Amino acid sequence: MTKILPREFYSRNTLKIARDLLGCFLVREHRGKTIRAMITETEAYHGEDDLACHASRGRTPRTEVMYGAPGHAYVYMIYGMYHCLNVVTERKDFPAAVLIRELANIERMKTNKNEWEKITGIKLDGPGKICKFLQIDRKLNKLDLAKGEKLWIEKTAQNIAKRDILASKRVGIDYAQHCREYLWRFSLSAEALAKTGR
DNA sequence: TATACGATCACCT
DNA sequence: GGTGATCGTATAC
Length: 198
What we know:
It contains four helices and ten strands; from the N terminus they run ααβββββββαβββα. It is mainly beta and 198 residues long. The protein has a single domain, classed as Methylpurine-DNA glycosylase (MPG) (3-methyladenine DNA Glycosylase, Chain A, Roll). Strands 1, 2, 3, 4, 5, 6, 7, 8, 9 and 10 form a ten-stranded antiparallel β-sheet that branches. Strand 3 and strand 4 form a beta hairpin.
């Protein structure tokens, strides 16, 4: 019984996945070190009709990965200095992804393995900060997240109640006309996060 | 080939 | 509230 989310998890409706990812754990293995943190905020980008989605202008070299099989990473550079991590969703040839915006309860695996120590004093509240801290860049674009190598997501340890999921407008997409009104940004309530301890 | 701008962040007033 | 950093990508020429 593995905790790694399989491809079937990603081969579903993007909005549902964006909500289901809350409380799940993003795991990054790099240079012999492993870091794990709980996903607490996401945004959904769904199809060519979503004017905020990079695929709204169709298939290009950059957006190609979003048209591919679900469960792969879509990592792009923004503003010349930051990277953003997305997970590709939906069936093949339907472009959609979920942006990982915030992580909490950050832990590092001790060298003796199978034991985690909390990392305090940092906040990963923003896609740029997440990628900087986890050393995620374009080299990880198109990585298969279902394989459990370098980067993957593990299922939540507890059930997240619907009332603990807050929906709001996506940020930084003022150009997206009516699509900017969509409540496709999802976050874990402060109360629910407090219950996860740590 | 040239240009405009962005799914951000840190720092300023 | 506002702005600069900094470069890949899309689009125009």
